[in-house]
Amino acid sequence: MTKGNVELLDLEGSRRLEVRVDGDDSLKTLLFCHDTPGAAVGFPLLETAAADAGFRLVSWSRPGYGRSTTQRNRSIRSTADDARAVCSHLNLEQFSVAGWSGGGPHALSIAAMVPLCTEVLLLSGFGPATVPDLDFLTGMNDSVIEEFTLAFEGEGEFEEALIDAAEELQTVTREGLTEVLGGDLRERDQLALFGPLGDVLVKSFQHAVMKTSAGWRDDDSALVRNWGFSLDHVRVPVTVAIGGADTRVPPSHGEWLASHLPHATVQVLNDAGHVSILEHLGELLSAMAKNR
Asked: Which of 25, 130, 146, 211 lies 20 to 30 angstroms, CA to CA, from 152?
C-alpha cells in the first residue's frame, strides 16, 4: 500500500474493514485508533508528526463507520482481532499504537491482546465506566453526559438520538463543530476548530456516518460495558496524555488509567482541551521515539 492508499480488507464473517496507510513502508508503524464518532481519513497533522518521529501511519474505520461493515454487539476487546488482521495483511513484525478519545480504550485493547505492540500513546482517552473508583460522567460537558446517559440505558431513545445526531453530522461544517462537541469548549479548543484540525474533524465526522449511525452506537455501547480485558495485561510502556482543560473526557479518566496501568507515564498538558491536545502530537510522538 502506498501513501494515502485506502482499501477494503476482507475479514471472516463477510465483514470488510476500511484500512488507510500513509507514509513510507520502510518506517516503523504507528496504528492510530480514531475518536468516537470518527473514521480513517487523511490527517495531515498526525501524518507529519508520525513521519518526523520515524513512523508511517496505519488507521482503519472501526466496524459500522465509513465503509467498514457493522459488527453488532462488538466490545472494546474486539478491536484486537481487527488489529491482528491488519497486522497480518501488512506483514507487520511490531508496531506502536495511539488512540484519541474513544479510540483510547481500543488502543489499550490492542496493547493487551496483540504481542506485536511495543508502546502506547493515549490522548484524552476514556477510562472505564464499570469500575467503582471512577465516576465516569463527572466533569464531562452536558452534551457528553446526555449521550452516555442514553448509552447506559441502551436501545430505544439512545438509538433514535444517534440516528438524528448522525444526520446532522452528515452535513456538519467547521462553523458547526463547537455545537457538536459541546458549547462550553475552552478557548484553545475553539481556536483549534478553526484551523486544520477543524477540517480533519469535519471529514472524519462526515465519513464516519456516511451510511449509518451504527458505528457510533456500537462504540458508545462498548465504552459503557466491561471492556473485556484487564489493564494488567498491558505490559508495554504507555504515555497517558491528559488535557487539563478537557471538557469532554475529563482529566480524572487519564489519572485513573495511569494509576491502573503497570507501566504508565503521565503527561499533563494544563492548557490543552479535547481537540487542542492533538497540537502536541509532534512532541509526544518524538518523546516516544527517543525513549524506545
From this structure: 211
